[in-house]
Amino acid sequence: MNDDKTIRFYMEEPLRKSAAKGEHNFLRLIENVVTKAHYRVDYCDFPKNGDAFPGYSLTHMISPPNANGLVFRRVYHYPFWQIDAVAQRWHWDVARADFDPDAASSDASRFYKFWQKRLFRDAPDSSRKEGFVYVPLQGHLQRQRLFQSCSPIEMIEHTLAHSGRKVIATLHPKETYSSSDRNALIALAKVHPQLTLATGDMERYLQTCDYVVTQNSGVAFSGFFFGKPALIFGQIDFHHIAVRADLQALGDSFDRIAAHAPDYEKYVWWFWQDQCINAGRDDAEARIAARLRRFGWPV
Known about the structure:
CATH topology of the largest domain: Rossmann fold
Order of helices and strands: EHHEEEEHHEHEHEHEHEEHHEH
Number of domains: 2
Strand content: 15-25%
Strand order of the largest sheet: 2-1-3-4-5-12
Shape: globular
CATH class of the largest domain: Alpha Beta
Structural class: alpha/beta
Mean pLDDT: 96
Radius of gyration: 21 Å
Number of helices: 11
CATH architecture of the largest domain: 3-Layer(aba) Sandwich
Distance between the termini: 16 Å
């Protein structure tokens, strides 16, 4: 078979080894789809210095090497995946789609409750409001990135100024923070005694917060399973039932989020079951093929 009938999968080593052994369910399903279209698959490390193969490729989480490449990424929890043209989730098809709760399946409530239990056991059953705002932080706390409306430090300052509540800001346990970022947080906490700093412990804070404030952390999506609304200061794929922070009217934004009560059941069903690829379903290969054809792949 000629090289022009090869599809390369670019990914980090542990995932590559798992895929090459046929042990990764989602990648095995993609392989089934493309081999039926008479392509062969090559599992590769990420390309270096622009030496990527010029043909079709799928890259895990980062930007594809050329116009024939696509990105695949887990959508917050297994077995839900997405295939799209770009790495930035806020530019994905789902981010541009319209959520219509009236079009959701009658199975939405059962689906939502199943995943509540599957992901968080009985914790959502004890969800309550204890008068504080939960701010799960990501990285680069003093820098405003392109997808953000302000820096994370400024976001905390806005929350302190407008929420009228205690604020618990948590560092991501897998993120490496500079001493400058840590010092900026500590200095802010010294000025604002209602600010508490912590690390991790997501489930505990989702269970007891009033709502979540974030740039675009996936923690906010997990919060939907606890019935906790999200005020977002950045761009993300699950923005449809969140409240977008308006820097020109932050008082209104915080008033809105305090009373916000979207239909979490219908949204989670729509976002995962309708818009993503559930690798555990019988129709997973058909949905994979549809996504590849969406971007012009001859499968």
